[in-house]
Amino acid sequence: MNLDLALSENDKMLKSVALDFLKRDAPKGVIQTLQESDTGYTPELWQKVVEMGWLGMVIPEGYGGFGSGLTSAGVLFEALGSGPLPGPYYASGVLSALIIQAAANEAQKQQILTGIVEGTRILTLALTEPEFSLEPESIRTTAMPQGGYFLLNGVKLFTHEALAATDLIVVARTGQGTVGGEGLSLFLVDRQSAGVKVRRLGGYLAGRTFEVRLEDVKVPLGNLLGGIGEGWRPLQQGITQAIPVLCAYQAGASQAVIDQTLEYSRIRKQFGQAIGRFQRVQDWIIEMVNLADAARLMTYEALWKLDTGRDARESVHLAKAAASEAYFEIVTMAHRVFSGISYSSEHPVSFHTRASRALYHYLGDPAYHRQQIAKLLT
Amino acid sequence: MDFSLEYTREQEEFAGEVREWLQANVPPDLAVITDPAQMSPDQWQKRRYFVWKLGQKGWLYPAYPLEYGGGGLNGDLCYVLTVELAERGLGLPPLYDAGVLAAPTILACGTDEQKRRFLPPIFKGEKLTWQLFTEPEAGTDEANQQTNALRSPAEQEYFMINGQKIFVGSFPSQPEQFFLLTRSDLTAERHKNLAVFLIPANLPGIDVQPLDLFVPGTFYEASGPTMASSEGTKHSVFFDDVKVPESYLIGGDHDGWKVVNAALEIEHTGTFAGLIGRNYSAEKFLAQIKQNPQIAQRVKQNPLLLETIVNIYIDAQTERLFSIRNAWQSLNRQSVPYTGPQMALFSKNFGGRFMAGSLKVLGPYSLTADTQWWLDNGIFESGQRSGVCFASGGTPEALKIGMARALGIGR
Prior knowledge:
The complex is a heterodimer. Chain A has helices at 9-25, 28-36, 43-52, 70-81, 89-103, 106-118, 232-267, 279-307, 313-338, 348-358, 366-377, and strands spanning 123-126, 142-146, 149-160, 167-173, 184-190, 196-200, 209-220, 224-225, 269-270, 273-274. By secondary structure, chain A is an alpha+beta fold. Chain A has 3 domains: 9-121, Acyl-CoA dehydrogenase/oxidase, N-terminal domain (Butyryl-Coa Dehydrogenase, subunit A, domain 1, Orthogonal Bundle); 124-232, Butyryl-CoA Dehydrogenase, subunit A, domain 2; 233-377, Butyryl-CoA Dehydrogenase, subunit A, domain 3 (Up-down Bundle), CATH 1.20.140.10. A 4-stranded mixed β-sheet of chain A has the order 1-4-5-8, covered by helices on one side. In chain A, strands 2-3-7-6 form a 4-stranded antiparallel β-sheet, with no helix packed on it. A two-stranded antiparallel ribbon of chain A has the order 9-10. In chain A, β9 (269-270) and β10 form a beta hairpin. By secondary structure, chain B is an alpha+beta fold. Chain B has 3 domains: 9-94 and 109-123, Orthogonal Bundle (Butyryl-Coa Dehydrogenase, subunit A, domain 1), CATH 1.10.540; 129-266, Butyryl-CoA Dehydrogenase, subunit A, domain 2; 270-406, Butyryl-CoA Dehydrogenase, subunit A, domain 3 (Up-down Bundle). In chain B, 45% of the residues lie in helices and 12% in strands. Chain B is built from 14 helices and 8 strands. Chain B has helices at residues 9-25, 41-57, 75-86, 99-109, 112-123, 219-223, 256-267, 272-276, 280-291, 293-301, 304-331, 339-362, 379-386, 396-406; strands at 129-132, 148-151, 158-168, 177-183, 194-200, 206-210, 235-245, 249-250. A 4-stranded mixed β-sheet of chain B has the order 1-4-5-8. The radius of gyration of chain B is 22 Å and the shape is globular. The relative contact order of chain B is 0.11. The interface between A and B is large, with 41 and 46 residues.
């Protein structure tokens, strides 16, 4: 058998470069500022990431990328999750890049993917709406052909990174079908277009999620991605490939929280001894380690299946159900161990509190993915 | 990373050889056992003979050195053997045998003479071993041994053993030898007062009595490809002035704690069986939901049960991945000390959750051993009984202590 659970030499190097980058360019104070900002990045940081080539990990060489494969992208985002480094790197360089590859025609790919790699374009997916759901029936946004344009109307809600983005991938209804994504199309919408109104949603734990209103937005015919009414299938393909990379970010973040908690439980003393000596405290830490290890293994198995062309649907649902839940629970358990000190918004655990909540529903929450598993089991 | 467990060409060739040999040597009427405590003497004899044949072939302990009667096979080929046996519902070894603990311990702590004397009979399937560690007052507190092995005042090269072991052994048939933990010094401090022996089971003064227990062994063992090695009937063993020569002592007469910890680490580490990564009981549970109209109807009528089903599925996947990881670590000599107790802890707790969940989902069908109405030859009935058994190989609470220690926070 070829079983090998070690990282390849290249991936080990990638991981170490990414961790060095975090230490040097995105220490504690920077993470906090970035989390609070509307775009999640600074131009200097963005440029550095572009120069490392990290926005082209999943983009083939023919489009200016590096074609490193999803597993390597997972390794990178697992490392970045330990920050947790905020920003539109995943939304643009992974999720959107994969959707564009699945949906767009050749000319569009040349133009858009090159822009993503070079960092001149930042894309994000505008999928969910006020009836928050990943099911196609929930999409009410319409796109009507009118003259040389499509006219888009609707509201996208809980869109991640919309203010960082130069372009939105908008899922809209071009036909009346209601079954299995029939009649849904994908559009690349310039965020600066007239009629696009973006508003950040308040809430300490809401992350950078936005309401995007589309009011008679004129989108050129050439910005239709793929066939008309045929957007749902490539969208699902791109999302399925992208999910485990997000899970890797959550797994890396979870491990960082565990490392901090272990360290604290060794130095914090109460009743004259390190709190890690108390079995009640150990119970939480053991549970944290178990959740994180399971999520990480599920994530890398899903990535491996995708990279080797195996059927990965079940593994992808499993990975996201586990990784979202693990990150959420691990942070909560860390707060039990740290208690008072971790409620400060300057405390590193609090960065993870925000990220774990904000990413919980991104591309499907555990309830959604568990439901998909249930469908496969019954 | 590569999660692939598919055979290479070399493995495929060896698998052909193994299948042919198994076809010729597994007794055709060897039953698949769901409750080892119910195994008939006739079935036990068939299994015992098969174990001997496997041992003579070198495939009972395939990873161990040829010079001591092992198979001398590499990890890839040991994996093939494990898979091919599992395909027939057989574990490796296919009977309870604490040789799996005694042999590596002897390799690590025994003298050269002891290796030559003790290892070949274990590896060749000639002697089965019971692990005799647990006592009435030494359960989780394993160091609190009350069974004394004291040097005979008259003959210093002999030990006199007196005391009682409990919850040990397997089927209602005696093994050839005991892997025994004792107290060798009444005054030395804790952990420095112990000694380990490998002794014949038929010495004068030894009395073995079966216990009347309703649990058939941990469900984890009864569920996986190792089901046939699950432990079945447990016993008390009494020692009354049992005289043992010094040549049966493994390690020094005050080194027992070191020796026993080498064994316990092995008990909690992954094996080749872990690579199979399948939980046959969970597979049978999920098959009931898809294929048994009565169960499918229950689930349809009460959608709340779906949550329980998905929980069991996710747990089973976690168990599979942990066991593959541990096996890979041990094959590659990777040391991550907490993963051993983590795996054992997870499996035990999952066993409990699995049985609680299958009680809900499968309903009263999961409780009956009635041959007309049971499910899957009663594996859920025996499973429900095991669902309350957390002791074997260390309670979850004890495993947590080990895990916390390995994480650098516990004592």
